[in-house]
Amino acid sequence: MNKVLQEVSTLKCDLLIIGSGGAGLRCAAEVLEKRPETDVIALTKVSHPQKSHTSTAQGGLAVVDPKDPADRNIYHMFDTWKGSDCSADQNVIKKITESSWEQILWLENRGMHFSRDIEGNLSKRTFGGHSLNFGETLAYRAVFEADRTGKGIMDTTWGESLKRGIRFLTQSIATELLFHENQCVGCLVFNQKKGEFIRVLSRATVLATGGCGQVFKVTTNCRQNTGDGLALVLQAGLPVMDPEAVQFHPTGIVGPGILASEALRGEGGILRNKDLEPFMERYAPKMKDLAPRDLVSRAIETEIREGRGVLNPDYGVYHVWIDLRHLSDYIHDVKLCEISRFFDKFVNINPKEELCPVSPSNHYHMGGIPTNEFGEAQNRSQDDVPGLFAIGECASASFHGFNRLATNSILELITMGKFAGEKMLEYLKSASGEMPEGKEELTDSRFSRYLEADGHDNIGQIREAMRTVMTEKVGVFRSEAGILEAIESLKELKERADKTALLSKELVMSQELVQRWELDNLLAVSMIIAQAALNRKESRGAHFREDFPERQDTYNYHTLTTMKEFGRIEFNKREVEMSVFESGGEHADKFGLIARNY
After folding, report:
1. Which of 26, 265, 293, 574 is an active site residue?
2. What's the pTM?
3. Catalytic residue at 265?
């Protein structure tokens, strides 16, 4: 490295976790419980792990209670498969759903305060796409801690990790994965507080960096969700799977885009257009407002397109209403107090008396770093990468396929965190001896380029232009013409970004430098989303092509994308795993390439 970007120290550990949200800390807790002597370092780009995006999850997590007389695990599996538009991996669906109850007990036994009914049983609410008896009626399957379930998970996993000696590196970013003979041996880290680079060598490395919602202009994601983990693996020549599978939540609060949880509709909220018609019956006659998110998002956009939306005078955008006026004070003030108050806090609306404006907001990335069912990262040949794991939203096992069901995300966090932790314990047994150094190849040139650029542009404006074009051209509805426009725009924005000078060359606490690094990550992720969306000439789950509106079985595979050079994408395929269907066992017919009607 040059004299400005010198490494000042090297840290060594058994396990390095890049990202300190629910998935990463559940993995850490599993390892430290079973092997207390393990030296674990967790990296987070924010000031404290509790600021991780998991803390914002509201409504609940799906689980089949063994004591429930009506629900069965096979129904949850079916709903997940159907919701995925027949593109999730069935071995992963089975493994995660069968472990779900065990994880609820793990959380509660370590102090999480799940809400309970007056008889002392776990309270449950219904969410979109969850049903009993293969779609016959709604299932009450989601357990929750009021309307702050993610915060409960973070409190629990953070506490379990902290009391067993985990070390945190806060306000630090992983700039490059380090490899020795194709084995991941750690990463290079930029510590924002000191303006210094640190080499962290580890026997096992876990990517748990969360989503990439800041690719889009309106998103429920927090500020730090800039696709860093995906950019890291692309930089290393590894693939990202199904990047085109991007979910938009139907009910983002108009203006800030903040999530108005599906729990509102689970408790009885009704979507209405400008004529106050409860329009979802036209799109999903059986499940109505609780149809899967991709279907509801397209329904809302269709209402707006066909002139039945409402123009918001403050923001100049069209929306529909969610009607919560008929809900009881108990629901508003106790069960959903935080979500209900969001409308008052952010848009000055009293949801007990007034209609609330909502429209689709980018929410979740079903695609990510390809892994097996144990969270082991894979290369483009689908071989496991020794020493490298990925879990949480940055990973794709694939539990969600092309559309994630509500409440399945934080279920995946805690289960895949556990599975990866178990596999890591096996891996650490054999990963003894000296730690190879690994060699950085890209960080020096990349950060030197940021500091040496002398062009007169603005990285904030470039970022906003990127988010705008992705929202308009690669959003809820897509077409070849629009995607091609987006790709050309992204190339121009990348050229602008490469020439843009930083106003300050200071490294200590330089938010501008970090935002410049994030901009490159966002542009890379945007490009693979757009290119994969162009390549998939069908509609499947949340990926909807207006010029190819039907699902095509010839595309019944996972997309693998690699991009060593910006804009030059190489595509590979990974087959959708269908072992439940192929087993020929009871209800196997429910797991074929079924129609997706609600």
Report:
1. 293
2. 0.95
3. no
